Structures are given as C-alpha cells and as structure tokens.
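In this section we walk through a basic example: taking a raw amino acid sequence and producing a predicted 3D structure, encoded as discrete structure tokens. The instruction is simple. Fold the sequence below.
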Amino acid sequence: MAVRRVDRIADPWGTRTPVGPGEPWPARVDEHLAAGAEPDRWVQTASVLHSDGDAYDVAVQDGRIVGVRGRAVDRVNRGRLGPKDLFGWQANASADRLTVPLLRRDGALRPASWDEAMGAIVDRSRALLAERGPGAFGFYTSGQLLLEEYYTLAVIARAGIGTNHVDGNTRLCTATAGEALKESFGCDGQPGSYDDVNHADAIALFGHNVAETQPVLWARMLDRLEGPRPPRLLVVDPRRTIPARRADVHLPVRPGTNLALLNALLREVIAGGWVDVEYVVAHAIGFDALRETVAPCTPEWVARICGVDAGAIREAARLVGTAQRLLCTVLQGVYQSHQATAAACQVNNLAILRGMLGRPGCGVLQMNGQPSAQNTRETGANGDLPGFRNVANDDHVADLARVWDVDPLQIPHYGASTHVMQMVRHLEQGTLPFFWVSATNPLVSLPEARRIRDVLASEDVFLVVQDLYVTETAAVADVVLPAATWAEKTGTLTNADRTVHLCERAVDPPGQARSDLDIWLDYAQRMGFRDRRGGPLVHWHDPESAFEAFRACVAGRPCAYDGITYARLRGGSGLQWGGERLYGDGRFPTDPDVCETYGRDLLTGALIDETAYRAMDPAGRAILKAAEYAPPPEAPGGEHPLRLATGRTLFHFHTRTKTARAPQLQAAAPDVWVELAPADARRLGLGEGDVAEVVSPRGRIEARVRVGGVREGVAFVPFHYGWWDRPGGASRAANELTITAWDPVSRQPLFKAGAVRVTKLADADGRAAPAPTNTASAPVGADLPPTRGGPDAEVVETGP
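The resulting token sequence is shown next.
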C-alpha cells in the first residue's frame, strides 16, 4: 500500500483509485491529526457536515479530539473523507462554545442554572397549555441531530404536547426528496444505493453538484470515470461545476425550468422507443396521461424556455434512453424551485419508464443535504408520522397510538403538519407564542431574512434555542440551552442511501452542555407527560433504549430497522435498512392500506383523498405522475434583470457555525461573493474582485464579484454567510434577497428563484473575490493563485 501526503484543500477529492464496472471500490484510508498528536484511543463515528454518511474514527488524546481517520471497512466511503470531515472536528473545541444555559433578564442573555432555564421553559409551557392549548407550540429542529433525539422530540411534540406545528430545517434542503418518493412509489425511502455508481453505464445528475455537497460520493464517481469502460455522464446545472466539466452532456438550464427540460427528455425517451414497455405495463400506472402531457414538449420548445440547445437536449435524451444501467441523482438545483416535487417526480418517471430500478447500477437517489435528514422523516421530527405512516389513514394513526399507548385523538392528524414558513406566519400573527429551535439557525437560513429577524425578535414570541454557540438566532432567544454535539454523545445517523451508522461518544461536552436527548428527556420528565396507563410517555433513558423504542415503533413498516442494533453497528460497516436496493421485485408500497400518502396534485398541492386514490387502483405499482411546466413566480426584468440562485460551496456547511471555526475550511472560503457570467460582468462594468451591491425587491447585500462559470443571466450567491463573526458589518446573508414562496407539494422554499440587480460599489483594488478557485466558483478569464491549504491541510492517504 502506498502512503501519500496530500493537501486536501487544494485537492479536495484526494488520489484516484480507478475501477471498472462491477469492480469493488478499493479502500483508501484518509487520516488527519493535529501537529504532534499521539492518540491514546480511536472512537467510531460518522460524518455530520454533509449527507454522504462517511464512517470514520475520532482520535482522542487526554480527553480531547486530536484528529480523524476514515474507516476502510465501511461500505459508504471505504476509508475516504472529505474536507469538512478532515478538518471540521476542530470546531468542537472552539473557545466560544456555550457551556452554561442563558436566560434573558432585563433585556440581556445572562448565565443561569439548568434548573432556572428548564424551569422557565416548563412554566411557560404549562401556562400556554392551560390558556391556549397545544396549538400554541412550535418545534423546529435540524438535519444534524441523532435518530434517538429526533424520535424523542417527535413523541414529546405529537403525543406529549399534541401540536401539529413540527418541522425540521430539512424543509429547506430536501423536503422535496421525501415528497417525490411518496408521490411516485407510495412511500419515502431511496430506491438506489451508492454501490450503483460501481455498476452504472450512465449517471445523470439533476441539480446535484455532488463534487461539493457529497465529495466522497464524487470521488467514487471519479474513480469510475477514470477507470476502464467509464459511465457516460449527464449534468443539469446552471453553473459549470466540477462534474459539468467531466460531463458528456452539460445542460446549463435557467433556474426554475427543470420541469420543462424533464418533460422534453421523457417525450424523447417515449418517441425514441426506449421505454421498457413490459416493465411499465406490469409495474406502473399513469403512462397514458404522462405521454399526453409531455407530447407537446419538443426539444425546440423547451430550448427556448431553458436556454439550452435543442440538439443537446436530444443528446441528453439519447444518453439516458439508451443506457443499460442508469443511475439518476437529484438535489437542490431541483428541490429549491417552484415546481420542485413535480420536477423530481419526472426523474422518478424516467427510471420507471426505463425499468431502471432494483438492479445493480439502476436506481434513483433523491439525495439528502444533511447527515440525518433521512432520520427526521423516519422519526416524524419533520412533521410526518413516524415509521412512514399516513396521517390521513385512521388505522395508521391508531397503530401509532398503540405504540405510544395514547388515545389516537391525542395525536394531531386533522391534516398535514405545519411547515416552517407557515409557522413563521403564525408567529407573525401572534397565534404561535412558543417556538423551540434546536441545532439550526433560521435567522440566516430562512428566506427573506429581514422578516425573520423581526418575527423571532418579537416580544410576543417565547423563543428557546439549543445550540453549540451563540448563533444569530440564539442572540435573540429568551432561553439558550448549551448542547453537546457530534463526538460528545452517542446515537445513530442514517444517510441518503439508507445506511445506518453508530456515532459513539468520544469526549465529554464542555462545561454543563448536555446532549439534545438529555435535554428533551429532562423536559418530558418535568412536564410529566404520561401514557394511558399512567406511566411515563417517554419511557427510555439513554441513546440505546431510545433506539430500541424507535425500532419497536417502525417494526413492520417500510423503514423497519430489522436486525439493526447497536451491537451489530459497533466495529464493522454501517448497515442499510431495506437491503441494498428497494423494489427489486417490482412491488411498491402504493397499496391504499400501506402507502404513506394518498398524494397531492403536483401543480396546486391539493390533497388527494382516500376515495380518489383507491379509484386509481395502484395495487403495488409505481405511479407515473405528470405535470405541465409553469414559469417561476418572479421573473427577471426591469430594475432586477438577473435570476438569483443561492447555493453551497464545498468548504462550508449551512451557516458556518462549525466550518468557520475550522481554520483550513474558513481560509478556503472566508467571505461571501456574487458569481456572474463573463458577458453579464462586462455588460455591468464589473470585473473580478470588484465590490458590488446585489439588490432584490426584499433586501440587499454587498459582495465581491467572481467572474465565473455560471450561465448568462444568473447571479449565484452562497448562502452560508451571516453576521455572527462580523457584527455591524455590511449585510452579506444571501437570504436578505430571497423570496417567501414555496413548492406547493413539498412546501420547500424557493432559494433558486427571484430577481436581482448587481451594481458596482468599488473597484477591486487588487483583490480577488474570496471564492475558491478549485470548485464550481473557479474564475474565468483571470489568472488567480490556486486555492491551497498548506501544511496544516496535509492529510495522510494510505491506499493502492
């Protein structure tokens, strides 16, 4: 085995280990230790700064984290780690960690005891329950906590309080993933597997900048692309991302036009005779309606909408239509648009029409954006019912009530749960006076940030925040609870291909910080929540007993964790629930008595009732759901001539609360930028590094200009940057600009919509934009120094 030292900021994906189709992916173990570190033990864990689910070990010395090392045995990453895994652990030891509760007194947050802080929360809770009932409570959580914590929160909120106001920040990134899977297959759960990359002869990435959002998954794809008989690659993205540079076909569509493009691809697949007719007849319904809907969507018509060449659309259709083993992946380029679920369903339709499900190399990955986004949906912490139960099915509600030993009427099921943007409206109107936020930072991450600031800072809202630091949101809270984080607590994470990993506690949390599980166990005990027999509603006491309670809750459900235990998760690879792939037998959980939803109208979001659903007679078949394209709600023009698209960069995660505290990551992308196409920059009189003002009808920011590979007519702004580390400075939060609107089915906000203008404020003065040069934000027409990390970013790679 070779041992190499590699600057993993300069080379984020590491050394290639090429493989051919069907060959196992060889191990390559990545290790990064603090200078002079000599670990006295290694503790098993998994990633929390993306959704890939990479497994690794934490190096511990004298009770401190001193580094990380990939786990070669694990099926997901085979020892490889991305930059955020390799360097992000340093944030745990940041000097500004919260170590004691804070309570607002005389207008300021002041240190308090746990009894004082929890007493204030419980007193307000009891008063509001008595005065205004369960509807006074809202809970908004994360995609970065552990399964055991989510499940406990779901039980407290649903059966303890009895509120329908429950959501996670997964609403912002991948709510559409779950809804699209439900609409097409009757139930959540990814059909495909990461191992499909090893077998596919064609890979289609729809709005998925995999190189930056899941760098180890991209490394797997790169190893296929550089091996014998590589797969063909289709990339749909308005920016010239790293995958786009490797693509056989790159379609840089206008943001908000994905549905039009996908309808054209489906039309061409049908017209080309590339439909697996036998499979569709046996295993799907809805083909005639789909064919009728897409028939007018010629490549020429769609080319005008999407701004791409009709010939390239035909070439893309041939790529996906003639593949023998097609893997499709989808992410926020599709999910954060006005017809998000409708577009994502068309990717599912493509797989169904081609019969590309349940076989090696054949599948769909409606990707997640966070490490435990899948767990929020499995446990019900996103507002769904746990175990993929159907809120409109009284038998499902009764079964959940049996598990929890409560009256079914205690579980709110009169309609869909309240998504976070609707909760904001209730907060604004004064009908939701209690709001508990855990492990997320809505003041920076929600759209139309100025409005969110006004709402959450209102004296009419009792705001509880539990987090690691005094975030922008924590700074306006009434109570702040210091939380333990990854490597300071034990629990499980389930990644985007249904692989469950165990994360063990490696070190103690700082000061008096507690795990989110312990915080909610304490709240449940203080509130005295009881089941029908008078016993404690939350009857578990630690992570493993919480995990077992969840396993009992999902037994017999489509996401059953059969055979997955802490004992089996220790020491070896993570384990997939449901097997390596779903639906290999062509049977789907669409039966009315099994399905997770009866569905919605893809254009309006109107609920389909049980009678109408039964009339469709899905009978275990997939559902081909069609939808016509409609333009975005806010088009560029007049004073705001550019389309806005917000997004991510490889070196940061969410609002940078962790990654900005890792020196290598922060140095690679230290500040916000606005990315423009060369033609737009010339027209506006802007050059690389110029300081510009970006203005929408809702707000403004200031940012330096990167003249880059984004398509003409689009302004790209990364959304990570808030003001916790730059108080009083010029605004740089991308969500000052974004629109308050959402997809009608998934209710996911539209972060890739809206219109802006960009004008020059000052010359570059010899400075470039603070954007990485080795990612999608690479400069065009400027000779800039490459992004490097230096000696502190060197990682030891051991592999072939």
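Looking at the output, two observations stand out. Residues 175-367+602-623 form a domain with the Dimethylsulfoxide Reductase; domain 2 fold (CATH 3.40.228.10). The radius of gyration is 25 Å. In the next section we compare this with other chains.
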